Each structure stands twice: as structure tokens, then as C-alpha cells.
């Protein structure tokens, strides 16, 4: 419905007038002049919306989609689920079989290799006569969703998941800015993506202008370019997405084995290998799913969300995971008309959901056995907990608050195509409703 709906049962006549005015002020804000907006507030105890504006309008959720993905994963996979990376010897080859762990090698290139080298030495291995092979077939080979913007896929936040994720699937690029308007020199790339040639078109922006630099190049790219600007002053770094994280993993492992006295006679390769029936030399387990979900929601890590999303199914494809997620909530009674998703992170600007759909999912998530864990995974906001979402001309929030009455509510507010910042308008309507309900 597009008109304002207020429940008299919950707030009475006077309260209804206040809620009505708050919602009118929100949608009438000058920043929303050209915008589409959806707002739904549901009582946690059950029942219809106590406040609503255009609750069935399909809108881009941005990173609020992460709340849906993580709530789904907690219920399907469980909070104690772990991603496993397994190390095998198959003939003369050393094979790493990825399990989609988005935290593998996240703190350093070699942090997870130490245990693997120890396992090899304990097995009496002093030389790899064949190849070091990375198998990332746990997830589909298509890492970037077709709908992701070209300006995103080369940057760290557009680093799509691999079955063998490594080092957050990202690398750091450092520049030395020069005179404003002139070139910024390329100082270093680390870790350097194997086999990639770089073109530097980065300019120097005004001091304090911030990160306006972009990395262009998608999965499998052999040539990447740096464009935009970095601020004048000292050295400045940005992060790009690895074209082939599995290849960096096996090349880094090969180099590390050499330094640890284990010679490698073959190459570093990425390909699927059948290891059925073989016993792994080592198994590296990720932190618990709950820990990863906390990072997903609090730091809004796209790679975490999309890896979790693909882990929902054994095939590890976008299509299968989309179906699994939809069916999970449809079975719990959520009307998913117009619910269109292309990833688990909300990076796609073509994914659309309604405020009512997210609100109903969040209410069900809170009531589930994992509800308290999910609630605590969300950032603190509005005196409660909420996940935010933003991209160009998109701002959204979905979460929970306890109102002045002492009752708990689920709220979702989404704005698309605003003409200026809507942060103030969203703050006023959410905090105002919290004070009235």
C-alpha cells in the first residue's frame, strides 16, 4: 500500500496522529522528492504493521540483504558450521581442496601454511615431485555476478567468492601522489596477482579529497588498470580484487614450501582434482559461522556474505542458493512476490525486495532458536540493532528497537533514488517512532 497505515490497536488515536505525522514528514522530506521509499514497522509479538508506507514496493536493499543471508545461513547451516580447507597428497602432486572459507589467509599469506608444512614433514615429505594444485570447485567458477557493476568488480568490495578464497581475495596498491591534477606514481602492489600486468592512470586529487581511486579488471584478468584520484600528501593505498585467488594461494604455498626446505619440482596450477577415498594430510577449519556472520553484519564484508550465500547448497551456484533462500522463507509463510536476488551481499543493483518482506524475515529470524545470536551479530543502531545498506542513491536499514512502551518492534526503511542524503530523515522517523510506539 502506498498510503500511510497506522494501527490504532497499538498506539491509540493520539499516538496514531503522531505516527501519521512522522511518516508524512519522512516521505515529504525534500531529499526524497524524486525517491521511492518503503517503510514497515512490525510488532515482534505478531500481527500487522503498526506503521507503513509503500511496504510492498520492490526496492534495492543494498547491504541490508546481508541480514537476510546471514539469518538464513544460521537456520540452514547452524551457528557452529565451519568451512574446511583440506590438503592431500595425490601421487606426486600436492592438492589443496578449498571449502569456500572466506577467512583463509586473511591475516597473512602464510598463517595457514604453517600447519600444512608441519603435516607434510610429519608425513616424511621433503619434496613435491609434481605440482601444487588448487581446487576451487566447491563454488561455481563464475565469481562475479552478471549484474555487478563493472566499476565494482575490480575493487576489494567486488571480490567475488571462490571455492578456494585466499587473503580476502584482495591486494593492496600504494601510490605516491604528486602535484594536484598530475599523475600519482605507482609505488607497490602487494601481494602481486600472478601473471597480471598493470596500467596506472591514477591522478593526484586535492589534499583531504579521500579515496576516489578505482581498480578495473575482473575475474581472470591478465591486465588491470588504476584510475581516478588519491589525495595529495603522503603515500596512499587502495585495495583491488584478486583476479584468481586460488592461483595466488598455490603460488604462495609453493614459495613457502621452498623456504621451509620442501622443494617443489612442478608448477602451481588451479584445476579440479578428484580426491575421493584419500585421507587428508591436514584440515584447516574456519572460525565458526557465527563468528563470520558477526564480521559480515558489523563490518559489511561482501566476500563473507557471498561465500556464506553460496555455501547454502552443495552445488555452490548463485541460482541454487537463490532458490534455497527463497524456499526457506516461503515455507515459513513469507510472501516473496517481487523478491529478486542475485547475490548474498546486496552488491547487485538489480536485486529488489520489499520492506514488508525483509521485516517479516527479520521477525521470524528473531523468534528462531538462533534469534539471539543473529540479533547480537547486528551493529548497534537507534538504541537497538540494525543492519544498514548503502550504494549510489540507495540507503536502507533493517533491524529492531524497543519502543518507549517497552514493546519490541521490527523496522525496515529503504530509500532509492534520493536527490541528497536521507540519513537525517531516516534518523528522525525511526527515533520518532521509537518514542511514540
Summarize the entry for a quick read.
By secondary structure, this protein is an alpha+beta fold. The protein contains 11 helices and 21 strands.
Describe it for me?
The protein is α+β, with helices and mostly antiparallel strands. The protein has two domains: 5-79 and 291-436, Beta-lactamase (3-Layer(aba) Sandwich), CATH 3.40.710.10; 83-286, D-tyrosyl-trna(Tyr) Deacylase, Chain: A. Helix content is 29%, strand content 25%. It is built from eleven helices and 21 strands. It has helices spanning 8-27, 65-76, 113-122, 150-153, 245-259, 289-299, 302-310, 318-330, 355-367, 371-377, 423-436; strands at residues 5-6, 36-43, 51-53, 84-90, 93-97, 127-128, 132-135, 170-176, 185-190, 197-200, 203-205, 212-216, 223-231, 236-241, 263-264, 268-270, 282-285, 380-381, 384-391, 394-402, 408-416. The strands form five sheets. Strands 1-3-2-21-20-19-18 form a seven-stranded antiparallel sheet, with helices on both faces. A five-stranded mixed sheet has the order 16-7-5-4-17, covered by helices on one side. Strand 20 (394-402) and strand 21 (408-416) form a beta hairpin. Helix 2 (65-76) runs antiparallel to helix 6 (289-299), helix 2 runs parallel beside helix 9 and helix 9 (355-367) crosses helix 10. The longest helix has 20 residues, at 8-27.
Shape: globular
Q: Output the radius of gyration.
A: 24 Å
Order of strands across the biggest sheet? 1-3-2-21-20-19-18
Ranges where pLDDT stays below 50 over 5 or more residues in a row are none
Strand count, sense and barrel status of the largest sheet are: 7 strands, antiparallel
CATH topology tier name of the largest domain: Beta-lactamase
| Terminus-to-terminus distance | 21 Å
Tally of structural domains: 2
Task: Tell me what portion of residues adopts beta-strand conformation.
Answer: 15-25%
Number of helices: 11
Q: Overall mean pLDDT score? A: 96
CATH homologous superfamily descriptor of the largest domain:
DD-peptidase/beta-lactamase superfamily
Class computed from helices, strands and strand pairing: alpha+beta
Give the CATH architecture of the largest domain. 3-Layer(aba) Sandwich
Please write the CATH class name of the largest domain.
Alpha Beta
Number of strands: 21
Percent helix range = 25-40%
Amino acid at each position: 500500500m502506498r498510503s500511510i497505515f497506522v494501527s490504532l490497536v497499538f498506539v491509540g488515536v493520539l499516538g496514531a496522529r503522531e505516527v501519521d505525522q512522522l511518516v508524512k514528514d519522512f516521505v515529504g522530506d525534500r531529499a526524497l522528492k524524486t525517491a521511492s521509499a518503503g517503510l514497515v514497522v512490525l510488532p515482534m509479538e505478531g500481527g500487522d504493521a503498526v506503521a507503513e508506507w509503500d511496504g510492498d514496493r520492490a526496492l534495492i536493499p543494498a547491504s541490508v540483504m546481508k541480514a537476510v543471508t546471514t539469518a538464513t545461513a544460521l537456520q540452514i547451516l547452524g551457528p557452529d558450521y565451519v568451512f574446511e580447507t583440506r590438503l592431500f597428497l595425490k601421487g606426486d602432486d600436492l592438492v589443496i581442496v578449498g571449502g569456500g572459507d572466506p577467512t583463509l589467509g586473511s591475516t597473512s599469506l602464510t598463517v595457514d601454511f604453517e600447519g600444512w608444512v608441519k603435516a607434510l614433514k610429519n608425513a616424511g615429505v621433503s619434496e613435491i615431485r609434481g605440482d601444487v594444485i588448487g581446487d576451487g570447485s566447491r563454488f561455481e567458477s563464475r565469481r562475479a555476478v552478471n549484474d555487478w557493476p563493472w566499476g565494482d568488480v575490480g575493487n576489494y568490495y567486488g571480490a567475488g567468492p571462490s571455492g578456494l578464497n585466499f587473503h580476502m581475495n584482495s591486494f593492496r596498491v600504494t601510490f605516491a601522489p604528486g602535484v594536484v591534477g598530475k599523475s600519482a606514481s605507482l609505488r607497490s602492489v602487494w601481494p602481486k596477482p600472478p601473471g597480471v600486468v598493470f596500467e596506472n592512470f591514477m591522478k593526484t586529487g586535492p589534499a583531504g579529497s579521500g579515496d576516489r581511486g578505482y581498480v578495473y579488471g575482473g575475474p581472470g584478468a591478465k591486465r588491470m588498470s588504476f584510475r581516478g584520484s588519491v589525495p595529495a600528501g603522503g603515500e596512499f593505498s587502495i585495495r583491488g580484487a584478486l583476479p584468481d585467488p586460488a592461483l595466488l594461494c598455490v603460488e604462495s604455498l609453493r614459495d613457502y614450501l621452498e623456504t621451509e626446505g620442501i622443494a617443489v619440482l612442478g608448477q602451481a596450477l588451479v584445476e579440479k582434482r578428484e580426491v575421493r577415498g584419500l585421507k587428508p594430510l591436514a584440515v584447516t577449519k574456519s572460525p565458526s559461522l557465527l563468528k563470520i556472520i558477526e564480521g559480515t553484519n558489523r563490518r559489511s564484508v561482501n566476500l563473507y556474505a557471498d561465500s556464506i550465500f553460496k555455501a547454502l547448497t552443495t552445488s555452490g551456484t548463485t541460482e541454487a542458493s537463490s532458490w534455497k533462500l527463497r524456499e526457506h522463507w516461503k515455507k515459513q509463510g513469507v510472501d516473496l512476490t517481487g523478491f529478486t536476488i542475485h547475490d548474498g551481499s546486496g552488491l547487485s543493483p538489480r536485486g529488489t525486495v520489499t520492506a514488508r518482506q525483509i521485516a517479516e524475515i527479520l521477525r521470524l529470524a528473531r523468534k528462531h532458536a538462533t534469534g539471539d545470536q543473529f540479533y547480537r551479530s547486528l551493529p548497534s543502531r537507534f538504541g537497538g540493532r540494525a543492519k544498514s545498506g548503502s550504494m549510489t542513491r540507495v540507503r536502507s536499514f533493517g533491524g529492531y528497537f524497543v519502543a518507549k512502551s517497552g514493546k519490541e518492534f521490527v523496522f525496515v526503511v529503504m530509500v532509492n533514488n534520493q536527490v541528497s542524503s536521507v540519513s537525517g530523515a531516516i534518523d528522525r522517523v525511526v527515533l520518532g517512532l521509537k518514542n511514540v510506539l
